[in-house]
Specification:
By secondary structure, the chain is mainly beta. It has two domains: 15-53, no CATH class; 59-225, Immunoglobulin-like (Sandwich), CATH 2.60.40. It contains one helix and ten strands. It has one helix at residues 2-19; strands spanning 77-78, 100-114, 117-128, 134-135, 141-147, 150-156, 159-160, 165-175, 185-192, 213-217. The strands form three sheets. The protein has a five-stranded antiparallel beta sheet, with no helix packed on it. The chain has a three-stranded antiparallel beta sheet with strand order 2-3-8, with no helix packed on it. Strands 4-7 form a two-stranded antiparallel sheet. Strand 5 (141-147) and strand 6 form a beta hairpin. The model is unreliable at 1-19 (pLDDT under 50).
Length: 226
């Protein structure tokens, strides 16, 4: 009799469990997809009840992911939130070999629609600050520009001599009246094929990868309309 009751209880629990549905949370931020106002936030980001991250110093790197919490607004920073330029006047040390670097993200005004809106240009610049020329095969590397996690422009390259630079550009409309869904940051990335260090070509082995990603918040764009 006891075994029958136990079996019945197990069947009831099993049936109840099968009737349950999991609530998806794709970005694992603790807010269900159905209620998440900011999907695809990085796992390190601190989010509010709507699933949206904060950026206290307005540098384009979300709180929780930011290792340098007091950078000035509109500062260009590496992906950890620390100033890409370093101390004033500092010159980055050159490593032995080629070293493509995400150098800067520039904003400029292309034209005005009216006093508060127009078309802007976002330009990313990559240069080689290593001690050797970069030389590779086509299709193995590219410069990418991302807008709030979405790829908006890509520029493949093959060779990049010492101190030579390459740019990637993207245009979009902008309004300083707080138009909905305007981006909050841009990211410039030097990207390589995963096997680039195994291809036997030493001239495309980037000697420093910590400078391959650069971020900039969009707070400085509004000043273009002043």
């Amino acid at each position: 009799m006891c075994r029958k009751n136990a079996l019945l209880a197990m069947l009831v629990v099993s049936a109840f469990s099968m009737g349950q549905t999991c609530t998806p949370d794709t970005d694992s931020d603790g807010v269900a997809d159905a209620n998440d106002g900011c999907p695809n936030t990085p796992i390190c980001a601190i989010v509010d009840a709507r699933g949206c991250p904060s950026d206290s110093d307005d540098d384009g790197v979300y709180d929780g992911c930011d290792e340098c919490l007091q950078t000035l607004p509109d500062t260009m920073v590496y992906s950890n939130g620390c100033d890409a330029e370093g101390p004033a006047g500092a010159v980055p040390a050159r490593c032995i070999g080629p070293d493509p670097r995400a150098k800067e993200i520039e904003y400029s005004l292309v034209n005005l629609t009216d006093a508060t809106s127009g078309t802007i240009l976002i330009k990313g610049v990559v240069d080689n600050i290593g001690l050797a020329d970069f030389a590779s095969m086509a299709g193995s590397q590219a410069v990418q520009l991302w807008e709030d996690g979405n790829l908006v422009a890509s520029e493949p390259f093959v060779n990049l001599a010492v101190d030579e630079s390459i740019t990637v550009e993207y245009q979009r409309s902008w309004s300083i009246d707080g138009a909905e869904f305007q981006p909050t940051r841009y990211q410039l990335i030097v990207t390589y094929d995963p096997d680039i260090y195994d291809d036997g070509i030493l001239t495309n082995d980037d000697c420093r990868q910590g400078n391959n990603s650069l971020l900039r918040g969009t707070s400085g764009i509004n000043s273009l309309f002043e």
